[in-house]
């Protein structure tokens, strides 16, 4: 983080400022309109808990670039590692002349991910690419084809991962036909499930669907986010993940945990599935893995990971040496700076503030999440009916007041908070003050 970047919210122009407006005009004439932006401002510097724009405005960052900059936007170890690697070489392609950084990242992933079984890893570029490769590995291992994903799931924007993603707009609408042999099962959604549907019952419900409409004999893999991301930060009830995983083990089905958004200390454990004591067969990681550089991975049981034939996995840029250097520095930062515990501290602070806000405002229908992955589901007063318009209004008000917050959810009614673990308590509290004021303004 630049020593000159002051850690305080500071608005010196209206939002957006004149320079951001100029750049937005250029964007509209140069960038495909399908690439949208949440904020109307252009960043010039970022670090700690602050993003500074080209007009000199400083925003409190409660989004982390969608859970990417967990260690901060310019963590010192990451900056130093990247600089050193750039000076050495930027690319050779691991499949042509391999390099130690790729192997070291694989070793770190094999050590850090749940379970003490023999593991292997393969590196890629994006979360969607890693999910696709996890499915390829599962199909090679089981010699079966079908894949089950869940209600409210988000797994990416490629053809296969669009098929696995639940929400049509904006991710899938008009982009079909999609990959076949993808099925959707009901999720455990504690806020919206019937009161008698606990985790075990929700698992039985999903398994019944899978057995009747897909069949274990046809099913290569079940893919699930231990805590859903774009679908609304839904935390399945206790026992749901374990029930699904046990059924997979008994039926030669690969259990794939998509930890793209929830991994790397984000939830107060290194990986979210650890909260439920679940050891996945394969685990998919990306986002927070490399401090902002593009890197993703599939890590899993050696016999599964080795099922694909030689050269069946890979890609020109997969495990780029600069991204690998960043990943090793990110992991060192998480471990050396105690960021798993920091995520737990953030959870306590945020849940306390949001529950107090909820006690005075029934439009906060549900407050949920783990670690620094917290959400509020917003509903119409006196009901559980989703209120996406109010959600958008709250987010917009926060943006204009200098706080970056994101929305998500199948119904578009979830405010999600993904602060960098490098943020101070003071900035975090101030950001939540702004959110609370936005609710009052929109009473």
UniProtKB/TrEMBL annotation:
Family: Belongs to the class-III pyridoxal-phosphate-dependent aminotransferase family.
Top-level class of the enzyme under EC nomenclature: transferase
Keyword Transferase applies: yes
Listed EC numbers: 2.6.1.19, 2.6.1.22
Name this polypeptide is given: 4-aminobutyrate aminotransferase
InterPro entries, sorted: 4NH2But_aminotransferase_bac (IPR004632), Aminotrans_3 (IPR005814), Aminotrans_3_PPA_site (IPR049704), Class-III_PLP-dep_AT (IPR050103), PyrdxlP-dep_Trfase (IPR015424), PyrdxlP-dep_Trfase_major (IPR015421), PyrdxlP-dep_Trfase_small (IPR015422)
Keyword Transmembrane: no
Keywords: Aminotransferase, Pyridoxal phosphate, Transferase
Swiss-Prot/TrEMBL cofactor(s): pyridoxal 5'-phosphate
Catalytic activity of the protein: 4-aminobutanoate + 2-oxoglutarate = succinate semialdehyde + L-glutamate; (S)-3-amino-2-methylpropanoate + 2-oxoglutarate = 2-methyl-3-oxopropanoate + L-glutamate
Known pathway: Amino-acid degradation; 4-aminobutanoate degradation
Molecular function GO labels: (S)-3-amino-2-methylpropionate transaminase activity; 4-aminobutyrate:2-oxoglutarate transaminase activity; 5-aminovalerate transaminase activity; identical protein binding; pyridoxal phosphate binding
GO-annotated biological processes: gamma-aminobutyric acid metabolic process
């Amino acid at each position: 983080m630049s020593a000159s970047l002051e850690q305080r919210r500071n608005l010196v122009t209206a939002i957006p400022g004149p320079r951001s407006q100029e750049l937005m005009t250029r964007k509209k004439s140069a960038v495909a309109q399908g690439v949208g932006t949440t904020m109307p401002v252009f960043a010039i510097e970022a670090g700690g808990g602050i993003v500074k724009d080209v007009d000199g405005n400083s925003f409190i960052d409660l989004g982390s670039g969608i859970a990417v900059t967990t260690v901060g936007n310019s963590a010192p170890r990451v900056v130093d590692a990247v600089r050193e690697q750039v000076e050495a070489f930027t690319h050779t392609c691991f499949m042509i002349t391999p390099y130690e950084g790729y192997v070291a990242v694989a070793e770190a992933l094999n050590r850090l991910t749940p379970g003490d079984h023999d593991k292997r890893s393969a590196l890629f570029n994006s979360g969607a690419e890693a999910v696709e490769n996890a499915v390829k590995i599962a199909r090679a291992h089981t010699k079966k084809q079908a894949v089950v994903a869940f209600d409210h799931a988000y797994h990416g924007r490629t053809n296969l991962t669009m098929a696995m993603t639940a929400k049509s707009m904006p991710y899938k609408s008009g982009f079909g036909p999609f990959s076949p042999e993808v099925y959707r099962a009901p999720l455990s959604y504690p806020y919206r499930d019937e009161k008698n549907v606990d985790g075990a019952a929700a698992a039985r419900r999903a398994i019944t669907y899978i057995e009747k409409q897909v069949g274990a004999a046809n099913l290569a893999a079940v893919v699930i986010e231990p805590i859903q991301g774009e679908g609304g930060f839904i935390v399945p009830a206790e026992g749901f993940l374990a029930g699904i995983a046990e059924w997979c083990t008994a039926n030669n089905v690969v259990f794939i945990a998509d930890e793209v958004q929830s991994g790397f200390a984000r939830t107060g454990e290194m990986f979210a599935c650890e909260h439920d004591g679940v050891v996945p067969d394969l685990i998919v990681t990306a986002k927070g893995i490399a401090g902002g550089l593009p890197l993703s991975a599939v890590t899993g049981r050696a016999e599964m990971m080795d099922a694909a034939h030689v050269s069946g996995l890979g890609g020109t840029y997969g495990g780029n040496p600069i991204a690998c250097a960043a990943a090793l520095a990110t992991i060192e930062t998480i471990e050396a700076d105690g960021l798993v515990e920091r995520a737990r501290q953030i959870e306590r602070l945020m849940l306390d503030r949001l529950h107090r806000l909820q006690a005075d405002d029934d439009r906060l229908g549900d407050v949920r999440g783990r670690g620094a992955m917290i959400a509020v589901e917003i509903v119409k007063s006196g009901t559980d009916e989703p209120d996406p318009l109010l959600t958008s209004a709250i987010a917009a008000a926060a943006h204009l007041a200098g706080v970056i917050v994101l929305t998500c959810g199948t119904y578009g009614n979830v405010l999600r908070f993904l602060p960098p673990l490098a943020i101070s308590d003071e900035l975090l509290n101030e950001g939540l003050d702004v959110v609370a004021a936005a609710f009052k303004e929109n009473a």
